[in-house]
Amino acid sequence: MNQHVTMPSEVQEYFNAINQYQTEAFIGLFAPGAAVKDNGKEIQGKDAIQAWAESEIFSNKARYTISEIMEAGGSTVVTAEMEGEFNRNRVPAPQQFRHEFKVLDGKIKSLLITQI
User: Do 107 and 114 touch, CB atoms closer than 8 A?
Assistant: First the structure.
């Protein structure tokens, strides 16, 4: 694992789009057949990813603060703290998440998100 890496622009733009509530920019970062696995839930294709993002990220006004960037096995791995407007009785904040990105031809091909 290399802990001294520069974050690929697609990965930086992913977090920028979330933090700036830019849903169109967000979905434009994903390849047509992209897949997201969010804490065990599998989301396949841009339409499903858009619906997931609107429900799980943008409706809650999620914001991320990046704490670590690494490369591992051909992926860019980002650890980030998430805050947002969640039901505090159900979802304590802030939370730490690990995002493992695979980028191909300038688009996010796959994203694995796990809570730490």
Answer: no
